[in-house]
Write a structure and sequence with these properties.
The chain is an alpha+beta fold. The protein is 27% helix and 19% strand. The structure holds 2-oxoglutaric acid and fe (ii) ion (FE2). Pfam families: 2OG-FeII_Oxy (PF03171), DIOX_N (PF14226).
Length: 307
């Protein structure tokens, strides 16, 4: 078992920062409560996600954008494949991105959102949840900055108008003919800066610890599971590790149930250059070369079959 105790975000930032740092150094993950995202909003969002995924395939497929890299709208079951995996994940999902004002200079790198016309409340609820995730993300990034001995607001400009994506996930009940080796989400690291995950109470999420064992991540209802992504790993020259994780198939009764979850992949702004922080590089070490967040993302999307 992991001893991922939940950390309260309502504590003074310095205290929160040292507990978060400890959890990140050990697991690359932390469970956070009192994060400020209202439970009524979370419940509403989960209910609407369930309504969407219950629509007929033909209706859902109308929102799959050909050639869009899955960046917005619907991605059908059996499409995404984890880096280095041989079978597809057993999931379908919907992506909500940033709503940029018309003519914004970054609009070229960020596709506009689309919304399911069948569910009129969808847009307002998920735009609100997106902005709540950003607010909580800002506080978590301040704590990470303190942990890294940076100015508290170091990350503010790096994520301003960032390419963050909220993913509504549905893992359907397992069918009789699951392809050999296929699981709900194969082992992977997240591509982005940090991930804030809601709704992962239904069992299945596991992280790979430093000892090479898979351990369950089981946030209590309403709590966030937060993890370090590949971009933050690269920025910190591997001091903070992007921990491999997966979602395994349940047995027994749970295999006949759907699982839902809502990760928010917090990204740097596309033109931010990810270059190892000087205070994370030891003498004689050669960190990975600088790369823009946009180029890094495109490289990784090609590897997971989405671009
Ligand atoms: O569904 C979950 O609990 C985790 C999903 C995940 O790791 C991902 O989508 O990157
Ligand atoms: Fe993930």
């Amino acid at each position: 078992m992991s001893d991922l105790a939940s950390i309260s975000l309502s504590r003074p930032l310095e205290d929160f920062s040292s507990e978060l740092g400890r959890s990140f150094e050990e697991y690359g993950f932390a469970i956070i409560r009192d994060h400020g995202i209202p439970q009524v909003l979370i419940d509403r969002a989960e209910a609407l996600a369930k309504v969407f995924f219950a629509l007929p395939d033909a209706a859902k497929n109308a929102y799959a954008i050909e050639g869009g890299g899955g960046a917005r709208g619907y991605t059908p079951f059996g499409k995404e494949i984890a880096k280095d995996a041989t079978v597809h994940d057993l999931k379908e999902f919907w992506h909500v991105g940033r709503s940029l004002p018309e003519g914004h200079p970054l609009a070229e790198m960020m596709a506009p959102n689309i919304w399911p016309t069948e569910i009129p409340e969808f847009k307002a609820v998920f735009e609100e949840l997106y902005s709540q995730f950003e607010k909580t993300g800002d506080r978590i990034l301040r704590a990470i900055a303190l942990h890294l001995d940076l100015e508290e607001d170091y990350f503010v400009s790096t994520v301003e108008d960032g390419n963050s994506v909220m993913r509504l996930l549905h893992y359907p009940p397992l069918s009789e003919d699951v392809p050999e080796g296929a699981i709900r989400a194969a082992a992977h690291g997240d591509i982005n800066t940090i991930t804030l995950l809601l709704g992962a109470e239904e069992a299945g999420l596991e992280l790979l610890n430093k000892q090479g064992e898979w351990v369950p991540v089981s946030p209590p209802k309403g709590a966030l599971a937060v993890n370090v992504g590949d971009m933050l790993e690269r920025l910190t020259n591997n001091r903070l590790r992007s921990t491999t994780h997966r979602v395994v198939n349940p047995g027994g009764e749970a295999s006949r149930r759907s699982r839902y979850s809502m990760p928010f992949f917090l990204h740097f702004r596309p033109d931010f250059v990810i270059e190892a922080l000087p205070n994370c590089v030891e003498d004689g070490e050669t960190p990975a070369a600088p790369i823009t967040a946009h180029d890094f993302l495109q490289q990784r999307l090609r590897e997971i079959g989405l671009a």
